[in-house]
Amino acid sequence: MVFNLSKIEDISQNIIKSLRRFPMASISALIVTIIVVTLMELNQFNTPIVMTSIKVAFVASLGVVLFPALRLFSSNIIMSIIGVAILVGYYYILPPSIDNNVVIFRHNILILSTFLILFWAPFIFIRISNKNIWEWTQNLILAVVSSLFFSILLYIGLSLALYSIEKLFNIDIESKRYAQLGVIIFGIYGINLFLSQIPRYILLLQARTYTKAEIIFTKYILTSLTIGYFLIISTYSIKILITGEWPTGIVAWISILFSVVAIITYLFWTPLWKEENIKFKRAIWGAVFAQTIMLSISIWIRIKEYGITESRYFIALFGGWLILMSIYFILRREASYKWLFITLTILLIGSQFGKYSASSVSRNNQIMRLENMLKDFNSSNITKKRAEDIYSTIEYLFSHHGIESLNSAVPDIVEKYRESNSSSYFPSFAARELGILDILNSYGNRRVFHIDRARDNIDISGYNRLIKFRYNKNYTTEKRYKNYTIKVEDNNLKILKNGEIIANIDISDFIKKLKVKKEYNSIDRDKMEYSNREVKILFDSIVKRGDNITILEADILIK
Predict the structure, then answer these.
(1) Which has the least CB within 10 A, 140, 217, 397, 445?
(2) pTM
């Protein structure tokens, strides 16, 4: 094996060039890396400086993709100034404390939509062939894959070196050093390696001919998958139309899966298209259009019955985008790929801001739905189904939009809850005040366990990680934090580190040991704790319906 120094030198030179070409993105990546490594070192949580640092890291992580995107529009310094102004505005939009899954989800959507700008920014103002656009797209995808691949290789090599030092010289190296090493490698080396591979001039990219392996992959693997998925979902759709029985959400996800595979297949066919292939092109988009109709009907039924949530909003948004793109590619012979990326970017960014954002639309729809259900409300003759709908809506608004979102629907209950300084789970408190708690308890044998008083301070001595975990069977089933995964599965709370279980707690057994049999239980907070050699879990509330854990909230300390 030849050790190719010239190749390493080329990579090094390319990275140096990327620092000159994308300095603001490199600085942003450096800021994120420094903050994350520092926070991993500190045993402090929820302090003002830590909260501010996390906000700065969020802003800088957006800058990693924002500055290259703006740079592809123009190399003018004005673009850098615009980028800084956008990030400053984003800093003030973010809430003071970022411990909400909704905020994190919105941030990831913004990063994704900003990253999509890279796929169309260079040719927004020029006319260019689809083959050149596909060549540019492939270069970006390969840049991401190769950056991840070489970063992982470097991490494995340096981790093995650290491990060797630890074993050979009997030096105790903390496990968090390996995590910090990973952050440094991916945050600095990986990001700059990706930036160095972004082509400088799109017009100089030559549309290349596929290799034999690529032709086989496109013609016989991707195309076969698309046809197979289409036959499966078409047969299933016919079955639905005959029986009139719509399944709960499965049609939507099958349609989305088919559409994604079909579009990828269409793009991969780009170098192979010939003029006579126009019917095949339209057949692919016609199939996407047909299945999107089924998707639209499926999501409409769910919205009509249960209202709009963020997930249903995005499925509906994606369905609308598919219909728009299908019509465009079917009717326009010279349809440009760039509109795939431009329209999707605009829709994703638009979904995060204003009164038509995913958050605003879902919140307002659920508030209106709750207000309608509470009109002429009478707890003495309410059905179990209506009680369950009321509770689910209150629970959704509380968990996704906070207690303030319920001010207009149940203002008296919100005020009473605040005046009582209660630490109980608000949806259960509201259900009791509405007089539907007994109905809910009889429906599925529902039981609630919560701490008797809030924990003012959490002692973190001896631990180096504090993770807030919120589980809801209908919305949030697991949480990933760096190399940790926390999830509830078969009524067991499982905590995994690098894929290995370090704690597995049977929640049903934990509840039995509390030795309480009421439907609504206020438990001494010291009894709502669990610990082993690796973790300490501080439960805030647990909700069990029948034999299933449906809600769990806890602060988890990890050594």
Answers:
(1) 445
(2) 0.75
What is the Cα 48 distance to its own chain's centre? Answer: 26
Give φ, ψ of 496 to 5 degrees: -120, 140
The 8-class DSSP code of residue 47 comes to -
The structure tokens 């945050």 sit at: 187
Compute and round to an integer the Cα radius of gyration of the chain: 27
Percentage with pLDDT > 90 across the chain: 24
Interval 460-476 mean pLDDT: 77
| Rounded Cα distance, 462 and 48, in Å | 22
Rounded Cα distance between 230 and 262, Å, is 9
Q: Which two tokens stand for residue 375?
A: 């009109």
Beta strands in 452-516, from DSSP E residues, in sequence order: 465-472, 478-481, 484-489, 492-497, 500-506
Q: How many CA atoms lie within 13 A of 552 on its CB side?
A: 32
Report the alpha-carbon distance of residue 542 to residue 557 in Å, rounded. 18
Q: How far is CA 175 from the centre of its chain?
A: 27
| Structure-token pair, residue 233 | 């979902």
Q: Which of 102, 94, 24, 96 is nearest to 64 (CA)?
A: 24
Closest by CA position to 554, among listed 444, 475, 427, 449: 449
Name residue 28's amino acid: S
State the pLDDT confidence band at 1, using cuts at 50, 70 and 90.
very low
What is the distance between the alpha carbons of residues 3 and 8, in angstroms, rounded to a whole number? Answer: 9
The closest alpha carbon to 541, from 449, 441, 403, belongs to 449
CA distances to 25, 256, 288, 299, 489 from 18, rounded to whole Å, are 9, 37, 39, 45, 45
**Spatial distance between the Cα atoms of 186 and 163, rounded to a whole number of angstroms:** 19
Q: Is 168 helix (H, G, I), strand (E, B) or coil?
A: helix
Nearest residue to 277 (alpha-carbon basis) of 234, 218, 203: 218
- What is the CB-side half-sphere exposure of residue 166 using CA atoms within 13 A? 12
Six token digits for residue 345? 């970017």
Rounded Cα distance between 19 and 24, Å, is 8
The torsion angles phi and psi of 44, rounded to 5 degrees, stand at -125, 140
Nearest-10 crossing angle of helices 384-401, 358-374: 150
Q: Rounded CA gap, 401 and 361, in Å?
A: 12
Neighbouring residues of 269: CB distance < 8 A, sequence distance ≥ 6: 218, 223, 277
Residue 234 has pLDDT above 50, yes or no: yes
Query: Tokens representing 125?
Result: 């103002």
The amino acid occupying position 224 is S
